[in-house]
Amino acid sequence: MKEFIKVMKALSDPSRVRIVKMLGRKVMCVCELQNALELAQSTVSKHLKILEEAGLIEFYKEGLWVNYRLADGSDSPYAASLLGHLKHWLEDDAGIQGLMDRLPDINREEICSKGRALAS
C-alpha cells in the first residue's frame, strides 16, 4: 500500500500534475519547467524529486543538460496506470490547455542564455 500512497500523494499537488502533463508532451529540463510554471528553481526541483521517488518520472544526463521525462511505469503498476490515464485527463482544463499551447515556445537555450546574461 505504501507504493500506492506515494503515487497518489505525488499527484495531489497541481504543480506536479502540470509537470506530468508537460512531460507527456516533451522532454524538459528544470529551467524549462521553471519558466513554464513560473516557480523558483528549488521548488521545481523538489516537485521533480517527489515525482521521481513515486516512479512517475525519470531523468537522464545529456552533456550539461539534465533531462526529465515520464517514466515507463515498469517500476510501479500504480504509476503506470495513472500515467496512462493522465494522458487523456484534464485535456479540456483551460489552465492545462494554456500551458500546452506555450510549450513549443519554451526553449532551453533562450532561457539559459537569459539567465547567464542576468548573472553577468
From TrEMBL:
Protein name in the entry: Transcriptional regulator, ArsR family
Transmembrane domains' residue ranges: none
PANTHER family reported in the protein's UniProt record: ARSENICAL RESISTANCE OPERON REPRESSOR, TRANSCRIPTIONAL REGULATOR, ARSR FAMILY
Pfam families reported in the protein's UniProt record: HTH_5 (PF01022)
InterPro entries hit by this protein: ArsR-like_HTH, HTH_ArsR_DNA-bd_dom, HTH_MetalResp_TranReg, WH-like_DNA-bd_sf, WH_DNA-bd_sf
Domain HTH arsR-type span(s) in chain numbering: 1-90
Single GO molecular function: DNA binding
Keywords (A to Z) from UniProt: DNA-binding, Transcription, Transcription regulation
SUPFAM superfamilies, alphabetized: Winged helix' DNA-binding domain
Entries under CDD domains matching the protein: HTH_ARSR
Species in which this protein is naturally found: Desulfatibacillum aliphaticivorans
